[in-house]
Specification:
By secondary structure, the chain is mostly beta strands. It has a single domain, classed as Jelly Rolls (Sandwich), CATH 2.60.120.10. The protein contains 1 helix and 9 strands; from the N terminus they run H-E-E-E-E-E-E-E-E-E. A hairpin with a 4-residue loop joins strand 4 and strand 5.
Length: about 140
């Protein structure tokens, strides 16, 4: 594992272990996984120069994104609305407000708003610096 990633993990573990347990904040695990939503296992990730990007994406009612793929790890949190993701081989998943999607890596897919309000996503990407966040087909 990359030294920078190890340092980030150690930093957060230190914060969690040294934080006083006398607080009222609520913690809920939204996602803990070793694979993408189609059950493809994450492979050993080597990142020499990690770059983290967080995007807010809004997909309007009846809007459909272009067919695309990601060549890095990314996780989408559905803040609002209903999102259906469809692969180029017609696998499909539908997510609702508050759900989390471990996105596909290297597989073409697209998302579409299948609800009656705009979809609001918060998407977290981590990969090698300079890697495109998505590549259209």
């Amino acid at each position: 594992m990359n030294k920078a990633i190890k340092l980030i993990i150690m930093f957060f573990i230190t914060i969690l272990c040294t934080t006083s347990p006398s607080y009222s904040a609520e913690k809920n695990v939204l996602l803990k996984t070793t694979n993408t939503w189609d059950n493809a296992q994450y492979k050993k990730i080597k990142i020499k120069k990690p770059e983290v990007t967080v995007l807010k994406i809004i997909i309007n009612v009846n809007e459909e994104l272009p067919m695309h793929k990601h060549d890095l790890v990314n996780i989408a949190y559905v803040k609002k609305g209903t999102l259906t993701v469809i692969t180029d081989d017609n696998k499909e998943i539908t997510l609702h407000e508050g759900e989390v999607l471990p996105e596909l890596i290297g597989k073409y897919h697209y998302g579409k708003n299948t609800g009656d309000v705009p979809v609001e996503l918060i998407v977290f990407y981590i990969g090698e610096k300079g890697t495109p966040l998505s590549v259209n087909k």
